[in-house]
Request: fold
Amino acid sequence: MNLQPTSDQNALIDAVEQIIAKPRELPRDGKHFAYSEELDAMLRGGGFLNVACEEGMGPLDAALVVETASKSPFALETAASTLVAPMVIGEAVEGPVVLMRDVRQAARFLPMAKAALVLDGDSAVLLDVRDLARAPVESLMAYPMGRFVETPDLTRGQRLSPDQRDKLLMWWRVGIALEASGAMQAAVHFTADYVTTRRQFGRPLGSLQAIQHRLAECTTRAQGTRWLAREAAWKGDAASAALAATYAQRAIRPIVHDMHQFNGALGITLEHPLHYWTYRLTALQAELGGPSAQALAAAHELWLRKSA
Reply:
């Protein structure tokens, strides 16, 4: 199996990297999250969030966009718009799109969303939310969070089939793994640079073998998440999606712990940009019920469904 991206996929990755690199300075305004309407508009206007629907492209290309965009310190809504909605609905959905398990709860990207994909019992609903009142929610998680002022009437939306609901869960799990992969890679890279320049005990922190070993372990976890997420996007099956999400959510805790420890006291301040990735990871760790829920889903797909 050739695991290397094609020349076209490399060009796609490079183009997204150039966009997210445009802000020359990391946001250091002391807020829990950073959201850039400019970067969001550039990605949408450039057609990068519609690649899953383009001829000759598909979910793996969309996955590469999500993974790459998730390396940005800015929280950018890409997973739902680029991957989940097109693979569930069968066509592009104008975004930002928010994914919701319960319309009464706060959700990521709801303050600026145009559409919502909502789980509702044995089915799901695609809901236009542009005319629905929403309120921002203060949160430590490095995402713009919000909730509906009044519980929306789901009968106004497009009712999806049980099969589409299953696809929503599957691609949502792939999206979790992809977003986590990008944020993990960025956090590890940022920390590796920090310990290379930060001197303590008369030498760079990165020269200490204990730090090198733990950074290597975190790099392995980040790369494992990356390849499992890409495999799940390529295969497009529920078992691979659940396994990728399980691995990703279990890898988050040790990565967040070590990255903050290696950045020292500075790492717990909002002026230090590390939290733009690690706080997002903490939010992703609990999404869709957390790693235990994903592991149960994987077991169901691998054993119960196949034995039925």
